[in-house]
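Hi Y.,

Following your request, here is the sequence exactly as I used it, all 193 residues.
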Amino acid sequence: MPLQIVRNDITTMAVDAIVNAAKRSLLGGGGVDGAIHRAAGPELLQECRTLGGCETGQAKLTKGYRLPAKYIIHTVGPVYQDGQHGEEKLLRSCYRTSLALAAEESFESVAFPLISAGNYGYPKDQALQIAVGEISWFVMNHDMLVYLVVYDRQSFQLSKQLLHDVTEFIEERYVQEEDANVSASRRAQETQE
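Below is the corresponding structure, written out as tokens. Let me know if you'd prefer a different format.
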């Protein structure tokens, strides 16, 4: 399956790119952002200083430096207030712009953390649904292996059930599309006869 949910440390993922849940300055911070900066080394901070920050919901690319990943896609998630201030739209944009950047760079594999679900306070179950939903739609149209890397046991348990539900949905949609393609092909043949 092109979407895999794993319980791991994202800084150890050997993929084309890992996604950093960054601060707007891109100059490091706590949580995933701090861990990625520490693991990548001081060269990452030097490159990030040249980028001029990043707006919430957008994404920028740097090298991976000392990480097993070749590149880092930095995206800035929304700080959760109450769900009434555009947080969902911004969080969806984080996944969409990061995946679009990965596709533009022809990456074959990318690993995401659960964006905004840590220090930024997004409810984990909602953040997980958004992540799986956005990634699932993307992988249906792109040949890329995408990992959703969760660190804690609770998120991993939630994600296993959600992934099962999404897998059933994708398989059902694929069968429906195949049936529609076969029907259209038959109609075209009958018209030609």
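The chain has a mean pLDDT of 86.

Thanks again,
Q.
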